[in-house]
Amino acid sequence: MAGRARGSARVLLAQLLALALALLALDHGDWDAAALLPPLPPREEAARVARFVAHLCDWGALATISTVQAVRGRPFANVFSLSDGPPGAGSGVPYFYLSPLQLSVGDLQENPYASLTMSLAQTDFCRKHGFDPQSPLCAHIMLSGSVTKVNETEMDFAKHSLFTRHPEMKTWPSDHNWFVAKLNITNIWVLDYYGGAKIVTPAEYYNVTFQ
Ligand SMILES: *[C@@H]1O[C@H](CO)[C@@H](O)[C@H](O)[C@H]1NC(C)=O
Ligand SMILES: *[C@@H]1O[C@H](CO)[C@@H](O)[C@H](O)[C@H]1NC(C)=O
Ligand SMILES: *[C@@H]1O[C@H](CO)[C@@H](O)[C@H](O)[C@H]1NC(C)=O
Q1: Which N-terminal stretch is annotated as signal sequence (predicted)?
Q2: pTM for this entry
Q3: Would you say the CB of residue 184 lies under 6 angstroms from ligand 1?
Q4: Which of 35, 85, 86, 113 makes a 20 to 30 Å CA pair with 97?
Q5: What single string gives the DSSP state of each residue in 100-142?
Q6: Which of 151, 182, 184 to mutate to test the pocket of ligand 1 (most atoms within 8 A of CB)?
């Protein structure tokens, strides 16, 4: 009994220490998602897993339909920094900071439909557990929808979400005409276990709340 009490006191102490470290990291405006990785939600709760992945990833691969002459009409994937909210306050909405000078943004001006992939392979999670990035155990999500500009109502939250997790965005060259955009999600696939991708609706996805 005494041993168990000591054990749980140690666990509590470790949790408090982790929390203190997390708060310390927040104070400095940078967030090492990998170092502070919270546990994966139960895999049968696919909507929660999707929100978890969307919140932990700082970037994703966005596929558009190319307008570049050489590959016109073909799928084109590119890396984008993103954020769905400040650490611990994810909204599920992937926000981007885009410039018309980017190849993919040219595509989006002609056809706003895009799909976005994010994977826990981008964190320490899969490496730590020895999961290959293509393994479904290395949880990843595919979001499909259209990329739209963020309006004034959402602007403060979107900018705060991006700039807290990507501080250098503030210093990106102003002559690139950066604007804040988001993926308006219409379809969600979650690969977090064997047996094929699970489908989650946007309503289920946005309904998830984290404590
Ligand atoms: C801005 O976008 C949000 C989220 O899509 C929406 O709920 C709100 O009605 C929009 N506001 C305006 C002024 O268009
Ligand atoms: C988001 O997508 C839905 C479904 O395609 C569409 O009805 C809605 O107008 C879109 N919202 C914005 C802000 O583009
Ligand atoms: C939203 O969450 C509540 C509480 O967990 C649940 O009862 C409800 O079925 C959920 N709705 C959707 C659309 O997922």
Answers
A1: 1-22
A2: 0.84
A3: no
A4: 35
A5: TTSHHHHHHHH--EEEEEEEGGGSSHHHHHT--TTSTTS-EEE
A6: 151
